[in-house]
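Bumping with the actual sequence this time:
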Amino acid sequence: MNALPATPDPSAPTPLPLDGWTRFITARTSAEFCDAWLAVLRDKFAVIAQAAILVESADGQNFVPIAVFPQANSDMARMGEAVQRTLAERRVVVQPCAEPAGLWHVAAPLSVHDRVAGAVVLELNAHDESLPLLLRELHWGSAWLSNLFARREHDAALASSVRSLGVLEAIAIALRHERFQQALFDLSNELRRRFGGTRVAIGLMRHGEARLTALSEAATFEKSSPLVHAYAAAMNECCDLAQPVEAAAPEHEAPDSFRAHTALLQRTGAGRLLSLPIAQQARCVAVVTIEREAPTPFGDDERKWMDTFGALLAPVIAQRVDAERGSWQRLRDEGRRFLAALLGPRYLLWKAGALAAALLLAVLVFLPVPYRVSAKTVTEGEIQRVAAAPFEGFLAASFVRAGDTVAKGQPLAQLDDHDLRVERSKWASERDQYDNKLREAMAGHDLTAMQVVGAQLREAQAQLDLLDDKLSRVKVLAPYDGVVVTGDLSQQIGTPLEAGKKLFEIAPLHSYRIILQVDERDIAQVREGQDGQLVITGLAGAPMPFTVAKIMPVATAQDGRNFYRVEARLKQDSPLLLPGMEGVGKIGAGRRKLGWVLLHGLFDWLRLNLWSWGL
C-alpha cells in the first residue's frame, strides 16, 4: 500500500471514531496503515495486551517503532528479547515473559526481497487455544505489512533515481562549457529554476576567502558592490561553520545566530535562503547560496538533493579550478604548498629532503676540490724520421712493416738494381774506350783530340760514380734504433717507386711526447708548466705524470667540435709505451668550488646562447 504523505487540515471538522477495518481501508500514511493493522488484529484477539510494529531506520543501523498499541510505555522494553531473537533467527518466536509471570511474547519478522525490513511483536495475557489461530492470522496478515514496506522501498528508490538523474543533469551543465565561469553561470540559472528561487549565487574559495563567481540572471556584476560583499560574508560564514545554513527573514521567524545570512536577507529582501558548503577532502572549495521569496523552509527531499549534488560537484570544481590556473598562479600555489609542508607540522620527509638539499647546496658552494681538464691523449715519438725512396725504381723486397723494432743500419727495403748494373757496365766500357783514345791522342801529340777525349772520359767516370752511389743506396737502411710507425710494402713488391716517396716512418725507442686534444671550452684553463696525469687504454695501471710543454694556437675540427693541440712531456719514460697509444690525460688546473666544477659547462652554454639571442 502506497505511503502518501499528507498533512491534515487543522480547520477541517474532527472525524468520528472509526472501527479498525474502516481505518485500515482509508489509511493514507504508513503510520496510519500500521496502526489500523494492529487495531484489526486486536479486535480479533482480545488476549493481545500490547503490540508494536518495528521498521528499519533511515540510517539502517537499528529498528524503530512505526505503530504501537495501546500506546508507547516503558513496559514495552520487556518485549525486546523476543524482537532480537526474531530478527537474528528470521523466524516466528513464541516465548514466555520472565517478569511478570503469565505473559507471553510473540514476534514475527517482516521480509522484503529476502531481507528483514521490520518486525511485529505482541504481548499476550494468556497462552490458550487461540494462539494457533493468532499465529495463522499473523502469518497471513504480515503480507500486508511486507507489501507496504516493499512499496516504501520502491518509492524511496524511485525518488532516489529521480534525484540522481537531476543531480547528474546539473553536473553535466558544470562540465558542458570550456570556460568554467560560463559553466557556473549556467549552473546557477539551473539551480534557480529547479528550486523556484529568486536568485542563486556560487562562490569559490581562494586562500580561505569566498569570492562570488556566478550570479543567476547576471552575466556580469560589480565585484566591489555592497551586495557582492554581503554574499561573500555569508559564504565565509557558511564555510567557517562547515555545515548547511538555512536562514529566514526576521519578520517571518525569530532570527538565528547567522549574522551574515541575516544581513544578506535584509539587503536582498528574500524570505529564506540556504547556503550549502561544497567540500573536497574536508576542505571547503565553494559555497552555493539559494534564495527564495517565500519563507517556506526547504524540504527534506530538497536537502537530500543538495547534499548529493554537493558531493558530486566538489571534485568537479576542484579539478576545473586547478586546470584553469595560469603559469604564475600554479608556481605560486606550488610554492605555498611547499613552504607549508616545509615549515608546518608533519611532512617529515619534506623537511628531511629540504635539509639534505641545503647541505648539498652548502657543499657545492663552499667545498673546494681539485679541478682537472680531461682530454683525449695520443703518444707520439719525440722525433720521427722518414725512410724514402732514394731514386726512381722498382721495389724488389720489403723486410719490415709498421710495429717492427729495427736497429741502426738494418735494411728496411731493397730496390731492383738490375738496370743500374747494366747501365754501369755500359759506362764502364765507354770509359775504357775513351781512356784508350786519350792514350793514342797523347802519343800523337794531338792537343785537340786530347781535350775532347779527356772531357768524354771524365763524363763517363762521373756516370760511373753516380751509378755506384745509387747501387750503394739500393737498400733502404734504418737511420737509428727505433720502431717502424707507418709503412707496409709487403703487398707492393715490383711496383714502381718515385724518388723521395715515403716508405716508412721510424720513431726512436723510449723517447715520446704526449699530445692532448683539449676542447676549446677548456683551453682557457690550461697553461704551460701545469702538471697532469695520463692513463693509457692498454696500460690502465698506475697513472703516468707529465708536464705541459707547449700549447698550439691553432684549433682543429673533429666530430663537430674544435680541439687545441697541447704537447706534454712525461716526467719519467716508460718502456711499455709505444707510439700511437691512446688514453685519457687530465691536466691539473688548481682548486675550484665543487658547484663550479659540476655546473660551469652549463653556465657557459647558457651565457653563450643568451648572448647569441641578444639577451
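The C-alpha cells above came from a reply further down the thread. Confidence is low (pLDDT under 50) at residues 1-17.
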